[in-house]
Design goal:
Blueprint (H helix, E strand, L loop, with lengths): L19 H4 L17 E7 L3 E4 L3 E3 L1 E6 L4 E3 L5 E4 L5 E3 L4 E4 L3 E9 L2 E10 L2 E6 L3 E6 L4 E5 L14 E6 L8 E6 L3 E6 L4 E5 L14 E6 L6 E6 L3 E6 L4 E5 L14 E6 L5 E6 L3 E6 L20 E5 L14 E6 L5 E6 L3 E6 L4 E5 L14 E6 L6 E6 L3 E6 L4 E5 L14 E6 L6 E6 L3 E6 L4 E5 L14 E8 L1
Length: 488
Amino acid sequence: MTTMPKFKSLFLVPVLALLAACGGGGGGGNSTPSTPSGATLTSIVITPANFTMALGQTQTLTATGSYSDGKTAAITSGITWTLKGSSVAEAFSNGSVRGKAVGSETVTATVGTVTASTNFNVKLPYSGLVAGGNQTLVRKADGNLQGWGANNWGQLGDGSQIDRNTPGLVKNNTGLPWRMVVTGEFHTLAIRENGTLWAWGFNQNGQLGTGNTKDAMEPVQIGTATDWVFIAAGKSHSLAINKGNVLYGWGRNSNGQLGDGTVVDRLVPTKIGALFWRMVAAGATHTVGIRADATGTGTGAGSTGGTNYGSLYAWGGNASGQVGNGGTVDVLVPTQVGTLKWINVAAGASHTLAMRSDATLWGWGGNGNGQLGNGSSANASAPVQIGTDNDWATIAAGNNHSLAVRTNNTLWTWGANSENQLGDGTVNDYGAPQQVSSATTWTAVAAGAQHSLALRNDGSVWAWGTNKQGQLGNGNNLNLSAPTQILP
């Protein structure tokens, strides 16, 4: 329901003495050490090698030495650990390194004249977040997924159907990292780093794409293709774009939301006629996508921002004007909305938000709660501008509320607010964007049915709104009326 949808401290950093000279410490000298038997050290292996760690995390390394007599042993003394630089991480005398800034670094172990090095990356603890009907999922720096909230159909992917109000890991039997995740009303889709596509949760209309209507409590692979790059999940339908910018849809199609010219549900990914898609968003019964036009400077699927823009198309349910073609009749194939160039799009239950290439914000469709942000409560069957500002950076759409971040990293909300989903401390609907929180560090937002989440530039995740099924992840089921840090 959202585009690419607030988190307490994950890691406790030991209070250890910093080493001198870029974090070096221990003994070593300049000669090659030897064992009591006379065998000399010939090489060192550092474990883990080429690793990724989260900002603020401490990773303990081990050094194993190989000796001239063919034996190996852990090196526990006489070893110095140093870093190539000092801005990304710091090193300790026990072989631990702690990430203190996002970036790449090299750590070196030295014993006498023998050295070994390995590279590592420091990433934000959480690199993405999405919200569905009443569930939330986030992607961790290590590529694992965590989820919480409603799980009545297995949409959290933990192998159960038990709701949870604290984060739990999505099952990952292959061990491969996840690259992207989206979630609909009761189902979830994800792409692994090897380009394979997976799904879990409710499957009544074939929205899992597995060729049947059997629900799945943990990830199951969709087909065998390894070139998927972008995904979207609506109420009961799913969409994906492959590396060739080809769009596929499956699941419920009673309103033509798959765009294949029919109203027949599809149990497996089915190609949508038009080519060169860059991104797509799915609402309750409608779909909106941006084409990678030849007139744009970028054509990579899933990319946004800058001059990587394209023309906008919409299709599916249109009773509230959410397709944006000026009418209220369902549309069965992708139909262009205006002739302007767009860079981002989000789909709510029956409303649509989109950003133009000039960073202005527009909305259309259902507006009974002010979710279009134009100061009215009347539906709009064609795009209407939201204010006059031209500094919008990212957007998200819930059932009947909207979220956005501006280029100055401020957070804005509007629309329905009966469950505190606007985060302004009230339950009053608001028909125009209002700033929430005085912080200027927001980078991303996600909107569920009636709950909201946002990511800050330190990787922390914040949440507010309804919490009846634990979708805020703070350990209880009480609503939060203002942004509250959840992780880390």
